[in-house]
Amino acid sequence: MTSSDATILADGAVDAIAARVGTSIVGGDSGSGIAVGIACAAFNGGITHRLLSGALDRLEASGVDLTDVTVAWVPGAFELPVACRAMARSGAYDAVIAFGAVIRGDTGHYEFVAGECASGLQRVQLDTGVPTIFGVLTTETVGQALERSEPDATNKGSEAAITAIETVHVVRALGGGR
Ligand code: INI
After folding, report:
1. Which pLDDT does position 109 carry in this prediction?
2. Catalytic positions
3. What is the mean pLDDT of residues 41-50?
């Protein structure tokens, strides 16, 4: 057994828990009727564009009407929280996604940019109740960032898109959201 075998949620595990408790809430994967706001950093834009493309492919494949998607470009990852906050507060989106790429080799202030971006985005979703997805790569090297934005099923933008949809379903079922 590899460590990933041990950490992946096993087939049937969620159903087994559901059979034991009063209520089990699981995020659906249909994007039908879901409006999404996306903020994307232009810094390291070769990477963030790959994340954004992966996300749009996955949103579309999940049933999101791309005319219900807004993309706002900001200069860098540090500016993502303020743009996401504006989108979340507008009441126009069921979920917001932030795309950025902070690469340690590029900057002496990696921790500040990456850390403030992450905590700012968490604050946005807790303050507004609108799911705000952290689609920001924080890597040691450009190679790692390229690897995580390959145009395939491992693309982190694609992962962020399905995370947004699933979280919208869970938050709605719990009586929250916009
Ligand atoms: N912004 C990024 O999105 N990624 C980085 O790797 C990065 N580096 O390396 O500095 C970066 N810096 C810019 C920052 O996000 C702000 O745009 C800038 O500090 C102005 O507020």
Report:
1. 83
2. 109
3. 98
